[in-house]
Amino acid sequence: MARWTNLPAEVRMMIFGIVVKDYRFRSDGYARAGYASVCRDDVDQDRIGDFERIMGNETTKYRRDYLEHLFLRIKFDDYDCSVCQLKEDDETMRNNNEVFFTALCNLLSILSKWNRNRRQNWLTLELGAYSPGDCKHTFRDFHPQENYPYQEYNDVEPQPGASIQRIERLGRDTLDDPYHGWVNGQQEGLSLGSKQRIMGTLAIDNLPKPSIHPYTFPKVEIITNLFIRRQFYRKIAAKSLDKLLRESFTSLKWFRHETWHDVDPQQQLRFEKDYKRLLLNGIPRNLRRLSIFENYNKRLHPEHFNQFTHLEQYTRRANPSLGKALSKSSRLLISLTVSFLVDAVDFFASFQPTNNPNVNVIPWENLENLALTSRLLHPMTAYRKINEMLAAAGRAAASMPKLKIMEIWNGGRGHACVFRYTNIDGKAHISWESTWGSRFQLDPDVINSWANVPRQGKYPHGNFTRSVNPKSWRQHRMETYGSVILQLKQGSRMQHFLSFFQMMSEIPRLSKSSTHA
Questions:
Q1: DSSP assignment of 350-368, as one string?
Q2: Is residue 185 left, alpha or beta, with left meaning phi > 0 and alpha meaning psi from -120 to 50?
Q3: Which among 31, 341, 501, 515 has the fewest CB atoms less than 10 Å away?
Q4: Higher pLDDT, 491 or 10
């Protein structure tokens, strides 16, 4: 049976028109929920003209009312084994940049002419880019493939083991292809060039000259949500994202950015430098929800799994300037979750006792949900440093009058922990859960700082409680950071459900081989 997303756009709109016109809905307000997937459209660079014809003119603009999610998925030229172990050359990078940003600009030009109406409260734009060769050579993943089958929530839930079976059909357990780094189903010693090939960065300042790309992106008020997921390894340069956010997405309310840590240290440093500028200057004033997740895996980043201190990859020291920049620029947000790119110790740095935190503090007046990671949360870290950071977090929470939940966490293979604050109708509670055993205890300074956090709700003077559960999680069940996210209350805010699904589908394979998908 043909999948909905594989049907031509014209056929989908014809079917939807029949449904809307002829179906007699019950009084139940959720009777139409089964047609939710109709409100999504996937567009590649070759279909933008069709999209404009179907949605863009006066006689068809009523169709826009039913569109809630638009996925611009850019396909670059394929490549063969003669270059699969090499970083993209300058010409390939410039051509890919031209394809991506020309397609994006063309789509934004169409959307810039749309006006939001009463029926349409939001429109999500999702961006992704890939080459068909990305899953054919060294990296035999299936989530960058064309016709990837998991696009909606209902694609995932009915068949929880289907993705595992699909991975197994790739034959990686028995693959013997030394040129691409596979020996008897194991993969080791991957070249830097092969990694750089699939992680090409898309930068607007690296276009062919002369370029048809305009200096300024068109302003698009209809887009309220922007998603960039981990499904594709290639990422948009931070400088280009900054330009997009400032010029096009001025009405943005939610930005979900799932990026991959770069395999080139110098390129990662440039990304972080530009990302700091984005955090300080590029966040739209209308933005209320920000989710940032920096991804790793063992094939791309083996050095983070083999540190001499046995601190795993998720203990890498984040750039301190990013945490401090985000602390300043997040004061208007309602929800903020950041994993690995920023460290909680830097986010709360201005609330350390030596920094006189009570002077001219700008509050997070609307912040309700906060989740951060910290490399300090590791059993080999001095407990004094952990308690100092948690106390600083409590002092910061005093400037978050609407805070309902905060989670500070970390984890990897064999270890995990989370510090959690919840405020339910004024009844506040802090808890510590970990795999560490009973050695760690919350200092009185930590308890006092959190006990003094102002509370709202039915019981603003309700009891303050605390709990420490030293062995609440089993070490052998902690395979990756995905295992830890399962234990968190804000996991769904941290990552898109498809991203989490992809991550969790990879975990059972860890016991078979050293690879991650």
A1: GGSGGG-TTSSPPP-TT--
A2: left
A3: 31
A4: 491
| Spatial distance between the Cα atoms of 107 and 222, rounded to a whole number of angstroms | 12
Within 10 Å of residue 18's Cβ, how many Cβ atoms? Answer: 10
Predicted TM-score (pTM) of the model is 0.85
- Among residues 459, 471, 462, 379, the alpha carbon closest in space to that of 433 is found at 471
Domain ranges of the chain: 40-267, 343-494
Write the pLDDT tens digit of every residue in 346-396. Answer: 999 999 887 565 567 899 999 999 999 999 998 888 999 999 999 999 999
Rounded to 5 degrees, φ, ψ at 257 are -125, 105
- Cα Rg for the chain, rounded, in angstroms? 24
How is residue 504 written in tokens? Answer: 């969790």
Instruction: Write out pLDDT tens, residues 237-286.
Output: 999 999 999 999 999 999 999 999 999 999 999 999 999 999 999 999 99
Give me the DSSP letters along 300-323.
T-GGGG--TT---GGGPPP-HHHH
Distances, alpha carbon 286 to alpha carbons 182, 221, 252, 336, 362, in Å: 48, 11, 6, 14, 18
Contact 131, 473 (CB under 8 A): no
